Amino acid sequence: QERLLESGGGWAQPGGSLRLSCAPSGFTFRLYTMSWYRQAPGKERELVAGITNIGGSTNVADSVKRRFKISRDNAKNILYLQMNSLQPEDTAVYYCARKKWGSTAWDIDQFDIWGQGTQVTVSS
């Protein structure tokens, strides 16, 4: 069964850092573009960052571009999201997602496998 499992969420103070991890199972991770999405209470799920299958290209939201970094280790089968300079507006559930094979668009409906999410809370 194809699955994604996120970890690394938690609480951070404003200005702090967290690193999220996503562990895939049931499919060949290195073949797929992967992304991180987030959803804050009362808001739509939004793309945070995406990375192509060999990591040659990334797509990062303007709101986090200078603070977050997406990366992957295909040898270890892990996707990461390094989050620095966290702000209260970064509070959300963060999801790891797999893009459909062959898709070139970044619309949310192009992602077919989702993790259960990990909560990130930023507050003082």
What does this structure look like?
The protein has 124 residues and is mainly beta. The model has no long low-confidence stretch (mean pLDDT 95). The strands form two sheets. Strands 2, 4, 5, 6, 9, 10 and 11 form a seven-stranded mixed beta sheet that branches. It has no helices and eleven strands. Helix content is 0%, strand content 48%.
On the 0 to 100 scale, the average pLDDT is 95
H-E order: EEEEEEEEEEE
Q: What structural class is derived from the secondary structure elements?
A: mainly beta
Number of strands: 11
- Sheet of most strands: 7 strands, mixed
Q: So what's the oligomer here?
A: single chain
Contiguous helical run count? 0
Mind telling me the C-alpha Rg? 13 Å
Give the distance, in angstroms, between the N- and C-terminal Cα atoms. Answer: 40 Å
Low-confidence regions? none
Shape by Cα distribution: globular
The amount of beta strand, in percent, is over 45%
Helix content: under 10%
Question: Which short descriptors sum up this protein?
Answer:
124 residues; mainly beta; seven-stranded mixed β-sheet; four-stranded antiparallel β-sheet; 11 strands
Outline the fold blueprint.
Blueprint: E1 3-7, E2 10-12, E3 18-25, E4 34-39, E5 46-51, E6 58-60, E7 68-73, E8 78-83, E9 92-99, E10 111-114, E11 118-122
Parallel strand pairs: 2-11
Antiparallel strand pairs: 1-3, 3-8, 4-5, 4-9, 5-6, 7-8, 9-10, 9-11
